[in-house]
Amino acid sequence: MKDKELLGRVKGKFHHYLSRFSGDFNRPDWKFLVQMCFGVLESGEVKLSKIAQGLGEGISMKKTTERLARHLGRGGFWGEILDGLLRVQRRALRGCRYLIFDISDIQKIYAKQMEGLATVHDGSASSESKASLGLGYWLANVIGVSADGARIVPAYRIVSCTVWMLK
Fold first, then answer.
1. What is the dihedral of CA 83, 38, 13, 7, to 10 degrees?
2. Where are the domains positioned within the chain?
3. C-alpha–C-alpha distance, residues 61 and 45, integer Å
4. How far is the C-alpha of 124 from the C-alpha of 126, rounded, in Å?
5. DSSP per-residue codes, the chain
6. Is residue 116 a contact partner of residue 161, using CB atoms and an 8 Å limit?
7. Pick from 36, 44, 22, 34: which is nearest to 65 by CA?
8. Which residues sit opposite 104 in a β-bridge?
């Protein structure tokens, strides 16, 4: 099967999944969500300029990037996306017996001026040496798991940098 054909099938299935969110957003926000998701799929990148390039619109890449950045910077948009996601996953989460909450971190050893850096505890250091404090990002993950462990439903994931930047 050709890559383009496979990508088309994945896009179709993903668009069907995203259509469950369509009632939660106005038309420009809905279009933005779909384009961001497909832009990441098409480009394989999370950089805004690469996503804009992957969309291949008939307007300048600068204008596309500015539009995407404007939507990302809108206050409260992250909360609307999370509310929509939880609404869509509500039925699947009701079938889960356990909710697992995991607080973790990513340490950025060489980072000095990245936005949103916080002091984190490096728990992955070897047991022989003391775990150290350093700069990095906090992570929070919540997943639902069925009683037999056969079904895992992602419910929530956030990185401290994301919260700081989208406030």
1. -160
2. 3-74, 91-166
3. 15
4. 6
5. --HHHHHHHHHHHHHHHHGGGGGGS-HHHHHHHHHHHHHHHHHS--SHHHHHHHHT-SS-HHHHHHHHHHHHTSTTHHHHHHHHHHHHHHHHHHT-SEEEEEEEEEE-TT-SS-TT-EEEE-TTS-TTSPP-EEEEEEEEEEEEE-TTS--EEEEEEEEHHHHHHH-
6. yes
7. 36
8. 139
Q: 93, exposed or middle or buried, with CB in 10 Å at 0-12, 13-18, 19+?
A: middle
Q: Is the pTM of this model over 0.85?
A: no
Write out pLDDT tens, residues 136-158.
Answer: 888 888 888 988 888 888 887 77
Q: At 78, list the tokens.
A: 């992250």
CA angle 38, 36, 91 (to 5 degrees): 85
